[in-house]
Predict the structure.
Amino acid sequence: MFLTNGWQDYTVLDTGDGMKLERWGDVILSRPDPQVIWAKQAPELWQAAHAEYVRSDRGGGQWNFIRKLPERWTISYGPLRFYVRPTGFKHTGLFPEQAVNWDWMSALIKQRGGARVLNLFGYTGGATVACAKAGAEVCHVDAAKGMVLWARENRELSGVDETRVRWIIDDALKFVQREKRRGKTYDGLLMDPPSYGRGPGGEVWKLENELYSLVSACEKVLARDALFMLINSYTTGLQPAVLNNMLTMTVARTRSGKVIADEIVLPVTAGGVLPCGASGRWEGK
């Protein structure tokens, strides 16, 4: 398992009954998690929650604010700083379990002394900021303008020079195909695709149908002496072995290096670990 255990400002306090209780700085949030099918280990902790996301029988849900919260606040991971806030889709603008991948990519970038990195489905820029802080020049691609604006704020908050990041609002596959025609290559490439979504022109994205084509296209813009390629998946049906196969059949077929894929988990204070999807990594020699 890829265990994310380097946080100071974030903690999973307890899990149970389809929910997870998390501390984000000084704020405690209770959110649904479909993989949590066991009982709560420390029921008394849940009384401290500032807000709870409540599912609706008609789909979606809403936040129930038990205590007053700021509109947004900041949390830190080492030298990195991020804005977080409760959004309408139960998220907070950050996936803290990805810090284990930030550390892995940052170490490779520092060893090389810099790199050109492409971040697809870049969201609010956690990986972008981490890679840029490590010395990379990052191209950040996301179809949602609002997420790109949020990522730019996180870049400034973390003290990353604005010249280190190029911001693109576009469909991931179309952008990669254009980069191939332009002859552009990257030393590192990562993708954090949603299970389902729409592009800026209303294009429907379904992960199971699109992922292999995207990975194949990305292999063509990866430099011959590239450092890494990373695929993240939150889709339950895409197990680590699926990601391993994709990387083995594309990137590893044409380059020296190693492939490893596993679950990402977060430690839980009350006991056990919280499963948070899977990651597939290719690392060049």
